[in-house]
């Protein structure tokens, strides 16, 4: 296991990394739903969730990984009471 830290750049203008690999682990930055122009994606919860999962999958792929290797996933909903089953 390497002690090297590898940072993967983000396409955003924010001062953060898309992901960081350290100690044999890969840590992804938080994701929000965005359209093809990197603007906030509006829509229902299913559309936004699928968009975020697709973005996570692409980020993992760009770092040489995939969703089947994810050990932990945390999600938060802003204003969750707006969404009804």
UniProtKB/TrEMBL annotation:
Keywords: Hydrolase. GO terms for molecular function: hydrolase activity. It comes from the Bacteria. The keyword Hydrolase applies. InterPro entries: RutC-like_sf, YjgF/YER057c/UK114. The keyword Glycoprotein does not apply. SUPFAM superfamilies: YjgF-like. This is Rid family hydrolase. The lineage of its organism: Bacteria, Pseudomonadati, Pseudomonadota, Betaproteobacteria, Burkholderiales.
């Amino acid at each position: 296991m390497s002690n090297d830290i590898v940072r993967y750049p983000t396409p955003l203008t924010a001062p953060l990394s898309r992901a960081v690999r350290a100690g044999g682990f890969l840590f992804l930055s938080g994701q929000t739903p965005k359209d093809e122009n990197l603007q906030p994606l509006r829509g229902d919860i299913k559309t936004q969730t699928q968009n975020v999962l697709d973005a996570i999958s692409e980020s993992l792929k760009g770092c040489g990984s995939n969703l089947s290797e994810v050990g932990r996933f945390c999600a938060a909903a802003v204003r969750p009471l707006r969404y009804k089953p």
